Amino acid sequence: MYGMIGTWSMATLGVEKASPLLAQGQSSGDVVEEAISAIEDYPYFKSVGYGGLPNAIGELEMDSAFMNGDDFQIGAIAGVKDIANPIRVSRRLSQERVNNFLVAQGAQEYAKEQGFEPKTMLTARAIRRWEERQAEVARTGRLTPYDGHDTVCVVALDQQGSMAVGTSTSGLFMKHPGRVGDSPQAGNGFYVDSEIGGVAATGLGEDMMKRPICFETLQLIRAGYSVQEALDRAVYNFVDLLKERNGQVGEFSYIALDHTGHYACATNVDFQFAVATELEKPQLYLAQPQAQHEVKITPASQQWIKEYYTRIQQ
């Protein structure tokens, strides 16, 4: 059995491109890298890679991570500028014995040393969005960076039984320069073990980094829970606890894929995820939270997908 799962509607592009590689017997690491690179390259996904959302001073800072589920090697970068594909740099770092998490200038120098392509990632379209937000802040006196933050995450299982996970994001729109969320943090933003499964997160990083839910989910699967049961217990128990202790809770959305190819999602907001397996062609699903932490999951229609692309390209 092989399969892959990715966060948000944008993951459909990566899943459609990379899932044939799984069918051809390629490695989960190659599949994760290729899927996320395709998403990073697409200029209309406003929260990842090329065309991503700027920070408070109009600069595009990106975060990314990669993890190999066979040997637990991790590579991550944060606060980087003008690297064409952060996920490729993250994967290369995961192959190093030390210096696996690099930030800002150090990460950019490493990418240059390794021959990765530099690219101006801030687009005119993103600058216009930033200018519009600056004008709104000047008019209202309110800075609301929460509008625009989605992380692309991909978990893959290959025919050899190996698993990998990757993440990539430009973080919160209008964030303070240097801000880093959960996405490049192992245990919080992602985790994978080829003998158990992989989990990844997208949402408000400041809340999601308060507990290593991705790691906890895998421990519950190891203890005997199904992938859906494990994800539900790990996510919703903490969402309720955080609400009780903190009085508020941000967006929490998680995807999971176990080592047998079964997948799951848990979310407290409207969410989408894309899937392809040995038994299932690439499909985008819509997830809508219901009462009692239940989630209604329905396949997205071709009309829904068409309207989505029309909307993001306006």
From TrEMBL:
It comes from Ligilactobacillus pabuli. Pfam families: Asparaginase_2. It comes from the Bacteria. Gene3D superfamilies: (Glycosyl)asparaginase. This is N(4)-(Beta-N-acetylglucosaminyl)-L-asparaginase.
